[in-house]
Amino acid sequence: MTEPRSYPGAPVQLPLREPRLEPTPVEGCAGCAELARVRSWARAGNDQTTVTDCNVLMARHPDGH
User: Fold this and answer.
1) How much is the average pLDDT of 38-59?
2) Residue 56 half-sphere exposure toward CB, CA atoms < 13 A
3) What's the whole-model pTM score?
């Protein structure tokens, strides 16, 4: 009789994700400027959740930037 395995199989190797660049504010856009300002304050306060939220909102800006 063979020795039973204590694991289901070989481990899965996941690919490394490349770091993503932050969206940049569009010059002359008040909405982008405000998001960049809030992002800067959040980064200074080590609030990474708000930094990420600002990045998402800037990338999905309603004016289509």
Assistant:
1) 95
2) 6
3) 0.66
